[in-house]
Amino acid sequence: FFSSRRRHTRYGTVTGVQTCALPIWTARNACGPRRLGERRPMSKTLGWLVRGLPAVVFGVAFLSVWEWAVRFFDLKPYFLTAPSSIWEQFVTNFSLIRGAATVSGTNAIVGLLAGTFFGVAMSFALSRFRFLNQLITPLAVALNAVPIFVLVAVLNNMYSITSEIPRRIMVALVVYFIVLVNVARGLTQVSATHVELMRSYAASEVAILRKVRIPNAVPFLFVALKISAPAAVITAFVSEYFGGSQNGLGSRISSNIANSKNAAAWAYVLAACLLGLLFYLFSVVMESLNRKDGAK
Description:
Layout: E1 7-9, E2 12-14, H1 17-28, H2 44-72, H3 83-92, H4 94-128, H5 130-145, H6 148-158, H7 165-188, H8 192-200, H9 205-238, H10 249-258, H11 262-295
Antiparallel strand pairs: 1-2
Helix pairs in contact: 3-11, 4-5, 4-7, 4-9, 4-11, 6-7, 7-9, 9-11, 10-11
């Protein structure tokens, strides 16, 4: 059955049982031989699923325990609402929730863009002029320490009661501080060796900024965006608690709680969570696209 002759192949010289196993071994290595212990590269889609699986499993388990606790202990809706009731209200009032999320999301995105722009611009100024850094940084820290409801109350007195500008300004102030601190650190905390090398080639400050400081600050900018994107959503709907038009997520949450519609209020909270998650995912996608462009 087995051949005892020597057989010369491009994989080596084999005899006996090896001859019988040769076709199987060849089929396994049709795409080329692999090293021992080497793993095939994972596709990007499968990689995203593997990384997101623990979060999905934890979320399902958490909601299941929540639903079970409400039913088992017979908790009243004013104390804790079941996830099934929240989802039912979310589906029933989807059009109203979508309208409120659009208002809060618009305020958040406008404030996020404005705060990012002014934060980056001020970071360049602080990295270039040291006296501005010593002057403006303490003021920015002090402004960020003021509670949101105080600033919103002051801004509401400055504009019309139906104006969305106070909320957008409040979001811009929160985002501005986060972007300012991170980008300024990225522009200043560069390798001294890189700066000295550029100066040894008689490079100007503009060239050093363009070739050394800005590339070093880009990762800091995306870290700031991943922090400030959800913070913009939180600030947008929290600002709605303290006056202004009652058309956003925050005002709808407070009004439903005041009317003892706890499940509906939780449905608006769910919308706020999804909106913050959407903003965060957008910042992550932007960071991944930047990495791909940098790799090219």
